[in-house]
């Protein structure tokens, strides 16, 4: 019988494009550490995103802004070691690519060299055109991110649905076309009306991955801690929880504490 590692065929940007062409939906989930990334990869995820949501779910910050390039590299190294099949894409963090395209290229090169990631993700459209061009010119695949872009939360002032208004929807469409034209291999669309997600997905040839962008896009992404129910506080409408690990873990930890306190653990079989 063949094993998982003998059977794997690595997911590439080209394969994601082929999936879109044959209308096969693309599955994406975040991961930030070796153990979880290994489980997620073995389950057959197409793309694993080392998201800067690590700032929230791993480091306890209220926004994605504080996480640094060094920290993202550390998370990405752990994930990359575990993953055999999925395409591994890593967020460039806030401040590492926006203002200066040369710095953007240095950040992207560090990410690729030090982690072995397959691609990077950046937030924004026209405003970061030069950074995108420069990174792509070095042969580094880029995934874009439009709609609700958490690194700009201080500009938006709210996590509400984006691009409901015609002007913002029009800008998003233009940005999406620009990202495709520049050579991005895919785009994440976050928290926008489903009909706009549909339009972007139909007009573009590259895969569109939604989070709160409806069902017509080419794939879906969720934050692992949210979909596994490790976080209980965060319940946006777009989130479907597939487990309640918060309670499972808490119950197990409470059982362990009880067994330690009572002297039930370890028993004779568990001792040398
Ligand atoms: O950082 C992240 O987890 C993300 C997803 C929400 C798409 O960018």
Key descriptive features of the protein:
single chain; 272 residues; alpha/beta; TIM Barrel; 2 domains; 8-stranded parallel barrel; 13% strand; binds 3-methyl-2-oxobutanoic acid
Structural account:
The protein has 272 residues and is an alpha/beta fold. The chain folds into two domains: 13-241, TIM Barrel; 245-272. 43% of the residues lie in helices and 13% in strands. The protein is built from twelve helices and eight strands. The protein has an eight-stranded parallel β-barrel with strand order 1-2-3-4-5-6-7-8, surrounded by seven helices. Helix 6 (101-115) links the parallel strand 3 and strand 4 (119-121). It starts with a helix and ends in a 10-residue tail after the last helix. The mean pLDDT is 97. Bound molecules: 3-methyl-2-oxobutanoic acid (KIV). Residues 30, 49, 51-53, 91, 145, 188, 211, 221, 223 line the site of 3-methyl-2-oxobutanoic acid (KIV).
């Amino acid at each position: 019988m063949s094993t998982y590692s003998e059977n794997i065929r690595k997911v590439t940007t080209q394969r994601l494009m082929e999936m879109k062409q044959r209308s096969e939906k693309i599955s994406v989930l975040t991961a930030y550490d070796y153990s979880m990334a290994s489980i997620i990869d073995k389950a057959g995820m197409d793309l694993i995103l080392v998201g800067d949501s690590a700032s929230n779910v791993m480091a306890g910050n209220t926004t994605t802004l504080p996480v640094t390039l060094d920290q993202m590299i550390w998370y990405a190294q752990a994930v990359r070691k575990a993953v055999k099949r999925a395409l591994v894409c890593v967020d460039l963090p806030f401040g590492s690519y926006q203002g200066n395209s040369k710095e953007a290229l240095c950040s992207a090169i560090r990410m690729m060299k030090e982690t072995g990631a397959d691609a990077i993700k950046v937030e924004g459209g026209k405003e970061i055109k030069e950074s995108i061009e420069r990174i792509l010119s070095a042969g580094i695949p880029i995934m874009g991110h439009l709609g609700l872009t958490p690194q700009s939360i201080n500009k938006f002032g709210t996590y509400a649905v984006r691009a409901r208004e015609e002007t913002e929807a029009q800008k998003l469409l233009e940005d999406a076309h620009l990202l495709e034209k520049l050579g991005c291999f895919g785009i994440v669309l976050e928290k926008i009306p489903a009909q706009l997600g549909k339009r972007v997905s139909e007009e573009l040839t590259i895969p569109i991955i939604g989070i709160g962008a409806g069902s017509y896009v080419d794939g879906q992404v969720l934050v692992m801690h949210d979909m596994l129910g490790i976080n209980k506080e965060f319940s946006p409408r777009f989130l479907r929880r597939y487990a309640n690990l918060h309670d499972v873990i808490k119950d197990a930890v409470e059982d362990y504490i009880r067994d330690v306190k009572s002297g039930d653990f370890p028993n004779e079989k568990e001792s040398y």
